[in-house]
Amino acid sequence: MTLTLSFLSYIYPLVPLDAIKASSKFTRMAVSFKYWDDCVDPQDMEALWADPEVRSEWINAGETKGQKVHLSRDPDGQPYLTQTEMKAVAGIIVRRHFVSQIDSDMICAIAELESDRQPIATRYNKKTKETTIGIMQILAKTADWLVSETGYREYEVEGNSKLLYRPFVNVYLGAAYLRWLSDYDQKERSEEFIVRAYKGGTKKATHKSTLPYWRRYLSVKESLPSRKVFEVGPMLDNPSVSSTPVQQTKTTGAADATWDSKVSSEDMEEMWNHPDVNKEWSKSGEKRGKVRFSHDAEKRPYISRVELRVAAETILSKYFSTRRVKATALCALAEIVSMRFVNGVGPRPGVMGIDYPTACWLYKDLGYKAYKVESVDDLTKPFVSMYFGAAYLDWLSQYEGRERDPQFVVQAYLAGPKNVNLQQTGPLWLKFEEALSRYEDFKTEQGACTIL
């Protein structure tokens, strides 16, 4: 699907194309932080103190919880984050907003290259007459675009570039840009493409000028403490129905998201009133007002097949009762796209994998307005994601004014309507058939799936 978004004007380098300068060559704006507390919100300070490695490092340095924590200083007197602090900030941002989408080690390695982890570092590009700011060296206009056009609104930075000196704000927006690059032009991108595009812009992602940066990145990343597996990969190849987390374990803790925190009271009542959901929740000891999500071994929240199906049936009965979309089709697509993970998998957020620009287009241009979508985080709400997934499927069923068959609709949902090949039964359709077979009212008519 081609969206009428002004992406092209934002395809520019985040940093100049010349070699990375030493930290002493950075310029600094009239911003000064002496303590962590000067540039971090109280809840973020709590999150840092809760990190065992940060807490140990701070206590060993003589810091005391409840008092202001000093930022480290380099020989020039400039503040910087230690590797332990940088790792913690990146990890917190990824866990909050980019689970299974961005590798925190990628963020840490880029921070090393871009700023030496210095929050008030800036770099002026004489050619473009633009200044990059902070740990991830973000342009102010890139930050404004990420907020206004792509929905990353956890921190409202529009018109206030000074917020980019704050570590959590800067790392959040740097991670948001990396995630956008990972799905650039609606194609799954490699780690190398993402990193080189971050350096030189998407047009220079394969140009020889960004190759040295990629090599330095690999070297820095390999030297980071506690290396982890890179988590951004081809979304449709890695998740499979067989790897879906079916073991239902319920975890407790104040930080855990609940159904009630992501679903309206009206929709929660619909869930409780369904006998299958009521039985499942009662059996696992859930209480009204605080229903926990199931979690896999890595503590990632996901929804059960019963919950998924009832959510799909509720959305369709309320908003698409006269349309051709069936609940089983939505459930099967969710199995493939997100493995039923609440936050989604790879670059696609939510259980239905509908990204923010697509949801905005469906809402603003096509009139699907039963649920508002004001930020990308809204799409991690199961009913919101399900609604826009159903809306997109409904639109595809009449793509270009023609009634489309199930194979076209499924392939178009997963790969885009311009990439459909009906000449042969492709792997996407076979995956869909496998996923569809897991839902009990799967029917066949003359050997074909009845999904629409």
From TrEMBL:
<protein>
    <recommendedName>
        <fullName>Transglycosylase SLT domain-containing protein</fullName>
    </recommendedName>
</protein>
<comment type="function">
    <text>Defense against chitin-containing fungal pathogens.</text>
</comment>
<keyword id="KW-0119">Carbohydrate metabolism</keyword>
<dbReference type="InterPro" id="IPR023346">
    <property type="entry name" value="Lysozyme-like_dom_sf"/>
</dbReference>
<keyword id="KW-0146">Chitin degradation</keyword>
<feature type="compositionally biased region" description="Polar residues">
    <location>
        <begin position="240"/>
        <end position="252"/>
    </location>
</feature>
<dbReference type="Pfam" id="PF01464">
    <property type="entry name" value="SLT"/>
</dbReference>
<dbReference type="InterPro" id="IPR008258">
    <property type="entry name" value="Transglycosylase_SLT_dom_1"/>
</dbReference>
<dbReference type="GO" id="GO:0006032">
    <property type="term" value="P:chitin catabolic process"/>
</dbReference>
<keyword id="KW-0624">Polysaccharide degradation</keyword>
<feature type="region of interest" description="Disordered">
    <location>
        <begin position="240"/>
        <end position="260"/>
    </location>
</feature>
<feature type="domain" description="Transglycosylase SLT">
    <location>
        <begin position="101"/>
        <end position="208"/>
    </location>
</feature>
